[in-house]
Amino acid sequence: MMDLPPVVKNAVTALGRLPGVGEKSALRMVTAMTHWRASELQQFAIATGGLADLRECGHCGMWTEEPVCAICLDPRRAESGILCVVEQVSDLLAIERSGQYKGRFLVLGGVLNPLLGVGPDQLRLTAMGDFVQREHIQTIILALNPSVEGDATCAYIKHVLPAGVAVERIGFGMPIGGSLEYLDPMTIGKALENRKSF
Amino acid sequence: MMDLPPVVKNAVTALGRLPGVGEKSALRMVTAMTHWRASELQQFAIATGGLADLRECGHCGMWTEEPVCAICLDPRRAESGILCVVEQVSDLLAIERSGQYKGRFLVLGGVLNPLLGVGPDQLRLTAMGDFVQREHIQTIILALNPSVEGDATCAYIKHVLPAGVAVERIGFGMPIGGSLEYLDPMTIGKALENRKSF
Prior knowledge:
2 copies of one chain form a homodimer.
Chain A: H1 6-15, H2 23-33, H3 38-49, E1 55-56, E2 63-64, H4 70-73, H5 75-80, E3 82-86, H6 89-98, E4 104-107, H7 126-134, E5 139-142, H8 148-160, E6 166-169, H9 185-193
Parallel strand pairs in A: 3-4, 3-5, 5-6
Antiparallel strand pairs in A: 1-2
């Protein structure tokens, strides 16, 4: 970085830690922020610093400021008897955005990865058995990403769950708005495999 | 935005005010920040909030924490007798990155735009005459962007400067690494017009 004032360098370094932000984007952000009023800068600092108050829901791992999140407190979701297992909170948010699911969630916090030292104890997996029993879960939807680790984690979950629970995995195939021409061979394979009578 | 905890909503709104950051990117940033330690969040808030201490150089308008910036204090640049006029600090930084210029700068703070109420008094234009005299500037390089307003501002500057000062504008043509095939007609026109014997 060229010879910039220390406060600019510090801000560029801080913003550069955000995902998808390189030094060039960070400098562009700083340029915009130099036009903000002092009160706006203060507001920005308070709002981002406020994330320190964020907790994980004691039941499912969703973001919350209370001991239990709004989704877990929703009685209609509790009565559904369905649990959707995801890797990250951002996956939960993506499913919520679809508006197509009204059951409970469990955020694993990742997938099994022995090479990186991620075993069942590093994930919200040991608590899952209790969750399923306590909340009378009848159906589990595995919404883990399709990868070697995701597949292995699904197999593990299926293995450790009591036999009475139906375990399903989300469907794989061609995305809506996609174009066959540009689709990868693996997805085309899955789409052919998962065809339905029409 | 869906029903997220208030601290998340506040952080998404704050980050969404940065240039090039929409709600989706802001949420992705927040997701990353939830994995930061409280001390890292605090550091981020301090570094970005620190931009409130940034000033404009009293001579040229560059970012500085002192009354006068490092570029203006550099005696070799002062002796060069050359002044490069730019619209924004980010333009100055781009020229500095090229490493091809070692004179003084003047950051106008924009270009003349009567429709938006931007006249000479809204820009660092009135101070330019004094700057040129006081610093014994012999050559002015106009590095304003090619636009109707940029062209008009260049014409205005040329008009108000004393006759003894050489006024030049940066060259327009084909960018290095560009491809004629994809170049816009205006740039091709400029490149033809600005051809040099080879």
